[in-house]
Amino acid sequence: MKFSEQWLREWVSPALATQALADQITMAGLEVDAIEPVAAAFDGVVVAEVVAKAPHPDADKLNVCQVEDASGERVQVVCGAPNVAEGQKVPFARVGAVLPGDFKIKKAKLRGVESRGMICSASELGLEEEASAGILVLPADAPVGEDVRAYLGLDDHTIEVDLTPNRGDCLSVKGLAREVGVLNRLPVEGPAIAPVAPVHDETFPVRVEDAAGCPRYLGRLIKGVDVTAETPLWMVERLRRGGIRAIDPVVDVTNYVMLELGQPLHAFDRGNLNGAVVVREVREGERLVLLDGQEVTLSDGTLIIADERAPLAIAGVMGGEHSGVGPETRDIFLEAAHFSPLAVAGQARSYGLHTDASHRFERGVDPALAREAAERATALLLEIVGGEPGPLVEVADVDRLPGDREVLLRRARLDQALDKALPGDEVAEILERLGLAVDAVADGWHARVPSWRFDLAIEEDLIEEVARIHGYNRLPVRRPAARLALKPDHEASTPLSRLRRQMVARGYFEAVTYSFVAPELQQALLPEAVSPTLANPISSDLSVMRASLFPGLIRALQHNLNRQQTRVRLFETGLVFRGELDGLHQVPMLGALACGPRSPEGWAGGKEPVDFFDLKGDLESLLALGGELEAWRFEPAEHPALHPGQCARVLYRGEEAGWIGTLHPAVRSRLGLKVDAVLCEVRLDALVQGRVPAFTPLSRYPEVRRDLAFLVDDDRPEQALLDTVHARAGEWLVEARLFDVYQGKGVPEGRKSVALGLTWQHPSRTLNDEEINHLVDAIVEESRQHLGAELRA
Length: 793
Hints:
Elements: E1 2-4, H1 5-11, H2 18-27, E2 31-37, E3 43-55, E4 63-68, E5 75-79, E6 89-99, E7 103-104, E8 107-110, E9 113-116, E10 118-119, H3 148-152, E11 157-162, H4 173-184, E12 206-208, E13 216-223, H5 233-241, H6 249-261, E14 265-269, E15 277-281, E16 287-289, E17 295-297, E18 303-306, E19 311-314, E20 318-319, E21 332-338, H7 341-344, H8 347-350, H9 356-363, H10 370-384, E22 388-389, E23 393-396, E24 405-410, H11 411-418, H12 424-433, E25 437-441, E26 444-449, H13 459-470, H14 496-505, E27 509-510, E28 516-517, H15 519-525, E29 544-545, H16 550-561, E30 568-578, E31 585-595, H17 612-623, E32 632-636, E33 642-652, E34 655-663, H18 665-670, E35 677-683, H19 684-687, E36 704-713, H20 718-728, E37 733-742, E38 751-760, H21 769-787, E39 790-791
Parallel strand pairs: 12-15, 27-30
Antiparallel strand pairs: 1-11, 2-11, 3-4, 3-6, 4-5, 6-7, 6-10, 8-9, 13-21, 13-22, 13-23, 14-21, 15-18, 16-17, 18-19, 19-20, 24-26, 25-26, 28-29, 30-31, 31-35, 32-33, 33-34, 34-35, 36-38, 36-39, 37-38
């Protein structure tokens, strides 16, 4: 939020310089991002009056003006501004003045006519970044001869504060003044706001159908306004210094009150309203043209302001174009409402919007503020655009409004947290200055939280406030006590750092993606996945918690492919979220993705694309780190994101631990990917398990090897044959290696040849042929009976 230092000091003015004030605010938890002067440096510019104007004799677009600047004589100036006129009060740069950019004013002749000075525009004084269309016209009561910097209060600073989401109460000059007053033990004095007496008794009907989303709604009909009136320069300047551009007097007043008090307001053109104003949820198919000109289809669950005919505004976000105030407006309906943060949260972002109103309502606006803001805005409107106010109509559901909150702060807990015992009177004073009603009790203080402090709900919140206002730098410095005993090292587990190093050694880069993903991306990859949906997401494409690492890796792949990176190797570790909030499971996973050529570009590398078995080999290198590769299995299965013929379920000790496969062609087409990618995902708790390595003495006796080639059905997995070998080959089998799979000439159709190399070795003697032949016969017979396998001749 941006605010004017001068404006703040009208409410509360501590004896601090600008930087010291900013430092104090920052140390109180409201970080100051920037301090900037409200205008560039210039001097020699005074208020002057244009007393005469005549056309330039030799130039159609120039005028010769006579100005009075209280110097004792009229000064002749040549001016090219189209809006210059007699009787205007203007900023006048005398000869010798220095304007922003070190531009010095000198006597000059323009088309043969002498000019002594310059009538300035707002941009020439550094008040606007873009070039102004005409000169800056000052109010009629501006005193001739006064320095313009002093008259406009330009020796001021704009201070930008970066507020955390819990401090929505400081999104106004009033809120910041409250904070500064507390820090400096000073009273806060804002403008007197008195109820405006109605001139007529006409009201406009209001109906609230969604009291949960809008527990309080106030409205007032003001008749006979003059929207052609000009917004006062002092208000335009305060809006500018708050980062808001002046538009028209009605909109400017609502924006001004929002900056001043923190309550967003909206004004409707009474002539465009039909029937009654209704606060309700959107109905199917309703559309709205917003004030910025874009037309949106309103989505389910959106809280809107409507009349009996059509939507008028998205509640708490932005008004509609057709119901807004325009040049023909004569009567306005002024709205001041309290919208629940949950009803507004995320609505602006879902339509690609971020407005000052939504920014405040999402963080919480004081529910007791709406009436005060409506009265303040009414008074300002009557002062600027005139009109006749009617009575203020209120529709409220008291039971739905935020209730009173009472918090107990225990003396013992406060002393423990601060490591310092503060005097009881000081603690009570700090809480009272913050607006809390405090009663001393036996073991501490009982505090009632004011309506504007949404962030104070538990004891720890009050402890933080006491520490913050007392001063963090005044708390004692203690070195924390720490137990320095060595932690036991679980030798059977594989550290996560080792898994990461292994993936890097295999040529992968570690990716770190959001735990939130786009719902349509997750739906495309995991149509049956259930994970929490965020009520207030960062953006609409990061609105659901990920149920898998696949969406984040796919998005990272798209990002790289869009930047001409054709060979991509990524891995990621992190939590995935499965189930609804009530029964949420958070599962740590490791995922990997590979795409593009198998080898990096080079004279010795081919251009073959990476495939399923490349990634399987990389994954098996991870599995082997645990020292029990035989506990892991891959079995054919189907996964909605993976190719049905190139997909396997990963099992650890017989239980599902993950998936590996090639991205499904239909999914790839839906995501707009033009290349194949292989992916895997495995539970980290399974990956880190293993067994402690143990030494086995090397046998001094020779190995015995037998190569067996089996004919099996081509849909029979090779693992089934290996399982049979391990079951029947006896305890002296030291290796079973698959070294060939063949289909073609000499092999019947529908069958394949699988060749295995089997190696036996006894630790204490030489194995004889009879023993080996007996084991081979057992393997062949078991394979024939259970797998339909035959030895290949």
